[in-house]
Amino acid sequence: EIGRSGPHGSDPAALRKVLRDLFDRADSTPFEQQIGDDRWFRYACHRMSDGGTVVTITNITALKQSEAYLRDAIDGMDIGLGLFDRDGRLAQYNHLLLPRIAAEHGNLQGKTAPELLSYLDAYIGEYREPVDLEANKRAMLATFERADGMPLELPAINNEWYRTVARRTHGGGTVVTRTNITALKHAEMRLREAIESIPDAFALFGPDGTLAMYNTRFAQAFPSFHQLGELAGRHWKELAKCALHDIADRRGEDQGKGRLV
Questions:
Q1: What contacts 134, CB < 8 A, 6 or more positions away?
Q2: Closest by alpha carbon to 8, among 16, 23, 37?
Q3: Which residues of 45-60 are buried (b: 16+ CB within 10 A; e: fewer)?
Q4: To bridge 26 with a disulfide, which of 36, 45, 117, 253 should be the other Cys (CB 3.0-4.6 Å)?
Q5: What is the rounded distance in angstroms from the CA atom of residue 16 to the CA atom of residue 261?
């Protein structure tokens, strides 16, 4: 059965030579070979202090099957996914993670996040809108290094948008997901245009009570809003406090004029 399949195909002589070299070196470097149709073994040789050699042969079939299941699961996902080891190098990924880069640069395994981001420089001319690519790369690298699960949404080439999320694994590695949210972003843009066209002040708050969307008329409704700057993400209680303060000031100014505010 030896050498029927694996790195040395059906050449048992080639496999015997590799094992002989492994024995002669005895530097603990492992060698893995598939035996027969579905069994995998790991060979390693260790030199002892008295000059002897210890040979270990480990059946790693279950491990290889688990790795195959993991690859199938990753390849079957409808979002881009990459697994980085604890040294920050890409260990596993599917075709949706960085399809353009993978197609042009081949196998990406072993690459670090900075190395992968450096490939984006070649596509700067393909963005439809002006973009600060260096700022975007810094933001993506920061997301990778934090790995806190906070999403990062950025434009890509061909007028597309992607959401990137990085999370730390129990083993100290990092799992990165990359989702195409182009349709969602375009729908958001159409919604914003519709909200802006409303003749009255409009504000949409999320379940947590923070402002999600608003139009210009809402931003101009109270002077204090201008002092706050960007209103999105502000809690309704903070905005209500500012509005009540402005109303009180306006009533004070109008006192004695017989006008209700």
A1: none
A2: 16
A3: beeeeeeeeeeeeeeb
A4: 45
A5: 94
Nearest Cα to 176, choosing from 119, 112, 236? 112
What value does the CA radius of gyration of the chain take, rounded to a whole number of Å?
Answer: 30
The position carrying tokens 């934090």 is 146
pLDDT per residue as tens digits for the range 132-142 = 899 999 999 99
| pLDDT for the residue 2 | 47
pLDDT of residue 35: 77
Q: How far apart are CA 169 and CA 245, in angstroms?
A: 48
Q: Compute the mean pLDDT over every residue in the chain, rounded to the nearest whole number.
A: 86
pTM: 0.63
List the structure tokens of 28. Answer: 């603990």
**29-39 per-position pLDDT tens digit:** 888 888 777 78
pLDDT at 103: 87
What is the tens place of the pLDDT at every residue in 49-107? 888 889 888 998 888 888 788 777 777 788 999 999 999 999 999 989 988 898 899 99
- Distances, alpha carbon 82 to alpha carbons 86, 88, 155, 182, in Å: 13, 11, 20, 20
